[in-house]
Fold this protein.
Amino acid sequence: MAKVLAALRQHWKKSTFGACLLGWGGHWLYGKHCDNLLRRAACQEAQAFGNQLIPATMPLKKATVFLNPAACKGKAGNLFEKNAAPILHLSGLDVTVVKTDYEGQAKKLLELMENTDLIIIAGGDGTVQEVLQEPGLLRILAAFSKIPIGFIPLGKTCTLSHTLYPESTNQVQHITNATLAILKGETVPLDVLQIKGEKEQPVFAVSGLRWGSYRDAGVKVSKYWYLGPLKTKAAHFFSTFKEWPQKHQAALMYLGPTERPPEEPEEKPSRPPLYVRLYRRLRSYWSFAKEFPQEVAPEDWEELKLSTIELSIATQNRQLDLTRTEDFMNICIEVESVSKGEFVHRGSQKMRDPHMCPEGSQHIQASRCILQLPEGTEGSFGIDNEEYEAMPVEVKLLPRKLRFFCDPRMREQMLQAAVP
């Protein structure tokens, strides 16, 4: 023992390095063991769904998974196979996986849509965008309101996961919780923005649109990877070297919120017999009380000239209110007079919450808006964290267009928050 202690004392640098390496290795192995325990518990819970008896005449539920293997720097495929796929298969679902890493998928997508009971998007914000932007889906987006959608967060940015699932620092737990939430069947309605240029096909977004200096600086953060935790502040700091203050000028026309119609019944009443339908048509035809067409009230557009450091148009999906009586999107026009220090500080906050509306900004609630940009305007929009060329656009709110699976605990929190 004395010889061992003497050797450790004589080679204390090597001993210290070896102890650190051993400690790190032990911590890594313990983390892997905990992840395996989480996977096992999730699979046992999923197996309870798979063991449920169903009538012999009832077919298995079919799930179509749109997987983006390139998400999370190419790790998404492995994450899905290790954490989500076993749960889905054990649950008794008939699973079809469609990889979104090749072109010409629209035809196959349309064929699968006709024979599926639920859709699962496995990836990040870019994968959600890619699925919604498929040309064929533009014609059948209405069908999405009847087909529930599940979201498995595998990408670098997963904005929807903040709304649908509890926060978790453990990636394996976050993925397994999201997959189990799909099996539990609780859903919430989410709004969609339809963003259309003058000649372009419409783009659909579930989070929103950003245009301005914070967004431009945010996309450059990855270039300063070598600065570690300071890369976000560095990207915004170097952005202030441009012309200051940075102004984005435009004209905005908008319509106010619309009243929410009552919920439609999930089950439609059965069709009446033929003789009843004939009687109703004849009574309607011979009725002397003619109904005069109602005059459609002209739309009351508001117009605004703006000069801002950043403009954002966002849905209410981030802070969902299931009991609201009006449908609208939030338009945030930030003041242009911002100091450079405040710009760097606020830019770091916007990396965590891109659609935050700082105090002092002009806040507008609208159901539809038209954004006119001056001729020769350069730059890009950020639509659900994807980059698009800046151009004049019309943004229309499609309220409660999609139904997404969510964790029952999150739905309960939304309902409790709505109760005064």
